């Protein structure tokens, strides 16, 4: 009878420790793979956004600089903003397309 009480107490103690975050549970291989996939997806999304934004900023800066230098209105700004946007889309397309070509 005493052994049954000890077993019950230790199981309740372990459950309470897990609820309060006092013990670290070992993760299965599936959980580790899922966390790795989440991190990879978030890093891919961050990189895609950075690619788009940087290409657009560079295009706008070149266009603004040419307009300022040549004294034109917004001709080069619009042109290079469109080119920068196209370059950003192309970079993201290269980033996310499947790489296994046979």
Report on the structure:
With 102 residues, this protein is mainly α. The protein has a domain of 70 residues. The chain contains 3 helices and no strands. The termini are far apart.
Query: Helices and strands: which structural class?
Result: mainly alpha
The portion of residues assigned to helices is over 70%
Strands, total number: 0
Give the termini separation.
69 Å
Q: State the low-pLDDT regions, or none.
A: none
Put simply, the count of helices is 3
Globular, elongated, flat, extended or rod-shaped: what is the shape? rod-shaped
Global mean pLDDT: 85
What brief labels describe this structure?
ATP synthase protein I, 80% helix, 0% strand, 102 residues, rod-shaped
In brief, what are we looking at here?
The protein is mostly helical and about 100 residues long.
